[in-house]
Write a structure and sequence with these properties.
The structure holds 2 protein chains of 2 kinds. By secondary structure, chain A is an alpha+beta fold. Chain A is 37% helix and 17% strand. The chains are: A alpha+beta, B mainly alpha. The interface between A and B is large, with 159 and 118 residues.
Chain lengths: 774, 245
């Protein structure tokens, strides 16, 4: 029999000697008792301090934007279902209970789960969403009364952990699903509710089983002992540790009741490893394996999780699905034997698949690039300990659906361009924002999605090439008395003598000059000669000032080569710059974080939307017009091989010397994306901005289905009819006449009507124009 | 085999007396409470007790007031006389490809406005419905609901919450000048006159053809400039406010 005695009581051995021996023994055992008592006091202090204080440090949790639902919203049913799957919504024939969804044709019924947001609580509720095309056509309750707006709970996209950290989602014992407690007790510690920390009965059973089997088959540890072991002790296997464990288990049971111990166990237990991160507790395990809140788990899922406690790596359902399934079914059998579940329930549960989320699905993907951005923004306001220990909840603008589309665009484009020699060494970065809110929605820091290394979107600072040109032309267009979109510009060779006496002779990409052209044509075709000439006229320092007003904080020397983008920026900085162009001349600092809540769900910090007008909307309207020409007929025109012709877009290609960097930055009304392709060693690539980055951009936009660019015409803009050959004022009914926008007063004088019988009334002309436009 | 714990327990019993141990319940004050998706709305924790998680489970009807008749946008009751918004599309110059450096040639691509949009409203744009509706009535359901929420938050003194709700409305309808106007108002109330002016200016760029709203926005700009110590700018803005009306 296991006579596990305290070492100090060994002196109590009966000697049968004289009485003084007995006296000594008595004294010694008293001493022993005092020492033991001291030890117990010490252990008791440990137990109480650790158990009653802050038991766990919780890494900050990072959430994606919550999906908003409202009638008229642009959202395809497919994207919606992707989001629901990622949130772990069960598909049922009739949505029943939180986290359930039922799809019937174009209608989706679901029961949202509710969530605590910064500005208040979103209730759990039953919602019916009807789709029409790629829009939500109706949002109502299941019985048909209209709902104005509903938010889903946000997807948990990651946490902020130091290396090798335990991660968990704390749950309370009232939140557990049916069967969990019963299953846990049945499998791990049948006598849990009877024993007082240690169970002589199960130790005896373990010893019996192990001795008769001749090997370690069964442990006699109670749940309390397991908790103590994980909570207070190391993994060392020795008798003294075993004894300490037993004592602590007794102490724990003395102070705390069974439910509290069980609750601590539920949160402490180790259930798997996710890279550096150790998955602890059933709360996180439920998210990690099923993407569902613990409370929603069904019998078969509960059985799997509890079964995994015995060997989290051996029974990892993703790596060893068959073994895990066998173990789960064994647990289910046990439940039937012990009367926890009926034979029918067990049989039904056994028929279910494992149900763990698939690798590569939205729920099981990591987004290190975006999390890196979040971390950097948070570091400005919080200490590292706050981020990794306090369980803060970080609400971001991250859009997982756009992120998946961006990743797919990068992957597919590289696959398509794989034939190009040298394309294998080319890396990629991408930033996707909403130009109207200044929020970062997706971010790619590496060609390999999910790769947490060098974040090129933030840290690859590379020459931007022709991406600078909008700044050059905008500088000119801000002087309407001197420059309009149809000002003449010479694209003839030129040489510039620098301060150091060196002569710089820029060239066009096609090494030809294109004579005298309209200003906007030089921009749309990205002609270097015309651009440098214009830049020299307005002055390089002024162009750099424009760049700064656009939101670029980096300082550059005022060399003429800056006019062709010799200055280097990161993709994120480029996004800031183009953001101002896309948003009517209003600059807004890029934000990835909306708000931070404490672990208790109380508002802690907000990152408010801020804007600042940096340009007159009129000149922005003109530069946007020129950038739309880039897409229609300039260097970006290949975009309309893929995208619909009626989708207005604006953008600019960029290529640095020897094609070392391939850039594209462009926007629609609601989406702005910057793509960079290049090599980490700054070597040559086989791509220009148009053949590389633009292809990724196009692929992304075709997946994201943006709204067409539609900047309201500012009051100081007039549309004038001009002759496309001469740039002279013309008339609407003249052959070949085209309309161009001008800052009021800078338009060419109107020409005469070409039709002698032209009706004099303006209305008729407008009708005619409308007919022509449509 | 039970011997070893007997002294332990007795020692403890002894010690308990002097250790002054809070018996019974664990003070459950972990840093995290139910986090993440398991954190239900109902999870407002009482001091020592976990909440019942059941409250949130029952599907409940949405409590957002659908229409509480909040017509708060334009001070001075200008809403009623607001002119309908022009939905006239702006069209970029219809110029099509030609050989490089060739003169512009006429061609046609359909201008932007006819992009497929089955829904009757344009959530990310200026409400395009015409007819004699007043500006406030033209607001979309979600925007109206969120403005109403923000209004309630503001009147209860929760300016951060109001701000947050308004930014949510701005994400739903980024070009709705009334949202920008309200954002400017709340920034003003928060003491950030500079941002108040900026949001009002942004609102103006979307308020074409809405003189009442323009006047209100200019009025707010005047206030903001006054606060920023720019009386001349404020006077100018007040002038504009009058012209708009």
């Amino acid at each position: 029999m296991t006579r596990s005695r305290s070492p100090r009581s060994r002196s109590k051995r009966p000697t049968g000697g004289p009485r003084r021996w007995l006296g000594w023994a008595l004294k010694l055992s008293l001493v022993g008792l005092v020492v033991l008592a001291g030890f117990a006091v010490y252990l008791d202090a440990i137990v109480q301090e650790k158990f009653s204080g802050k038991r766990w440090t919780i890494p900050a949790k990072v959430y994606a934007r919550p999906l908003e639902l409202f009638s008229g919203q642009k959202l395809s049913k497919n994207d919606f279902l992707t989001e629901l799957d990622a949130l772990g919504y069960r598909r049922e024939s009739v949505a029943n209970g939180p986290g359930a969804a039922a799809v019937n044709g174009n209608t989706v019924d679901l029961n949202t789960r509710g969530f605590q947001f910064y500005e208040g609580a979103e209730k759990a509720q039953a919602v019916r969403v009807r789709f029409s095309g790629d829009y939500v056509s109706e949002l109502s309750t299941p019985n048909g009364s209209k709902l104005p707006v509903v938010r889903l709970e946000p997807l948990l996209v990651g946490g902020l952990y130091p290396k090798n950290l335990e991660d968990r989602i704390l749950i309370n014992i009232d939140q557990v699903p049916p069967y969990l407690l019963e299953t846990l007790v049945a499998v791990e510690d049948r006598d849990f509710y009877q024993h007082f920390g240690v169970s002589p009965k199960s130790i005896a059973r373990a010893v019996w089983v192990n001795t008769s089997a001749g090997q370690m088959r069964q442990g006699g540890s109670t749940l309390t002992q397991q908790l103590v072991k994980n909570f207070f002790l190391t993994n060392e296997r020795s008798l003294s540790r075993k004894l300490t464990e037993a004592m602590m288990a007794l102490l724990l049971e003395l102070h705390y009741d069974k439910r509290e111990i069980l609750e601590a166990y539920l949160n402490e237990v180790f259930v798997g490893q996710d890279g550096q991160r150790a998955v602890h507790g059933f709360g996180l395990a439920s998210q990690f394996f099923f993407s569902q809140p613990l409370a929603e788990l069904k019998l078969h899922q509960v059985a799997l999780l509890v079964g995994m406690v015995k060997g989290p790596s051996a029974y990892n359902p993703r790596r060893y699905p068959e073994r895990a399934l066998e173990r789960r079914n064994l647990v289910l059998d046990l439940l039937e034997q012990q009367g926890v579940a009926t034979a029918e329930q067990v049989a039904a549960a056994k028929k279910m698949p494992l149900g763990v989320t698939k690798r590569g699905s939205l729920a099981d993907t990591s987004f290190p690039g975006f999390l890196d951005l979040v971390k950097r923004q948070l570091r400005e306001d919080y200490r590292d300990e706050d981020l990794t220990e306090e369980g803060l909840r970080i609400f971001t603008s991250f859009d997982p659906i756009l992120q998946m589309k961006a990743e797919a665009a990068v992957g597919e484009t590289f696959k398509r361009l794989a034939g190009r020699k040298g394309s294998d060494e080319v890396e990629a970065a991408m930033v996707v924002t909403n130009p109207e809110t200044g929020e970062v929605q997706a971010l790619i820091g590496s060609r390999l999605s999910g790769y947490a290394g060098f974040n090129r979107a933030l840290d690859a600072v590379r020459p931007i090439g022709s991406l600078i040109k909008p700044a050059v032309y905008l500088t000119a267009l801000e002087r309407p008395s001197q420059y309009t979109l149809t000002s003449w510009l010479s694209d003839e060779p030129l040489s510039i003598k620098g301060a150091d006496g060196q002569v710089w002779t820029p060239q066009n990409y096609d090494r030809r000059s294109h004579g005298t052209i309209f200003l906007f044509q030089s921009m749309m075709n990205s002609y270097n000669l015309g651009t440098v000439r214009l830049g020299q006229q307005v002055g390089v320092p002024n162009v750099l000032k424009t760049l700064a007003r656009l939101g670029v904080e980096r300082e550059f020397p005022a060399y003429p080569s800056m006019l062709l983008g010799a200055g280097a920026l990161s993709p994120m900085e480029v996004a800031t710059m183009y953001q101002t162009l896309a948003n009517g001349g209003f600059n807004t600092p890029m934000r990835g974080i909306r708000s931070v809540l404490t672990a208790q769900g109380e508002p802690l910090k907000r990152y408010p939307f801020q804007i600042q007008q940096r340009f007159d909307p009129g000149s922005i309207f003109l530069i946007q017009n020129a950038m739309q020409h880039v897409m229609r007929e300039g260097t970006g025109r290949s975009v309309y091989n893929v995208l619909p012709k009626n989708l207005a877009l604006a953008g600019k290609t960029g290529t640095s010397n020897d094609s070392r960097d391939s850039w594209f930055a462009g926007f629609s009304q609601d989406l702005l994306a910057v793509v960079w392709l290049g090599r980490d060693d700054n070597g040559k690539t086989p791509f220009t901005g148009a053949t590389g980055a633009l292809q990724v951009w196009t692929s992304f936009m075709s997946k994201a289905d943006p709204l067409p660019l539609d900047m309201p015409q500012p009051d100081n803009i007039v549309q004038a009819w001009i002759d496309p050959h001469t740039g002279q004022g013309s008339y609407a009914n003249c052959p070949g006449a085209v309309q161009m926008p001008y800052i009021r007063g800078s338009e060419p004088p109107a020409g005469a009507s070409c039709d002698a019988q032209a009706p004099a009334t303006g209305d008729a002309v407008m009708d005619w124009v409308k007919g022509w436009l449509n | 085999m039970k011997k070893w714990w007997v002294p332990a327990v007795s020692a403890l019993a002894l010690l308990n007396g002097c250790a002054n141990v809070p018996q019974g319940s664990i003070p459950v004050v972990d840093a995290g409470i139910p986090v993440s998706n398991s954190e239900r709305v109902s999870a407002q924790r009482a001091t020592n007790q976990y909440p019942q998680a059941t409250a949130a489970r029952a599907p409940q009807a949405q409590a957002i007031p659908q229409d509480s008749g909040v017509v708060v946008m334009i001070p001075g009751g200008g809403a009623a006389v607001s002119t309908p918004i022009s939905s006239e599309p702006f069209t970029p110059g219809p110029i099509t490809p030609g050989p490089a450096a060739a003169p512009i040639s006429t061609g046609s691509y359909t201008p932007s406005t006819s992009y497929s949009m089955p829904a009757p409203i344009t959530p990310s744009g200026i409400p395009s419905s015409n007819g004699g509706l007043a500006a406030d009535e033209q607001l979309d359901g979600p925007v109206l609901a969120l403005l109403t929420t923000a209004q309630q938050q503001q009147s209860s003194g929760d300016l951060n919450g109001a701000s947050s709700s308004l930014e949510r409305a701005q994400r739903v309808a980024p070009r709705e000048p009334q949202v920008l106007y309200r954002l400017a108002q709340v920034r003003m109330a928060q003491g950030d006159a500079a941002q108040a002016e900026q949001f009002a200016r942004r609102g103006l760029t979307f308020a074409s053809g809405r003189p009442d709203l323009q006047a209100s926005l200019w009025g707010l700009i005047a206030q903001a400039r006054e606060k920023q110590g720019d009386p001349a700018g404020a006077a100018l803005a007040r002038q504009k406010a009058k012209v708009s009306l």
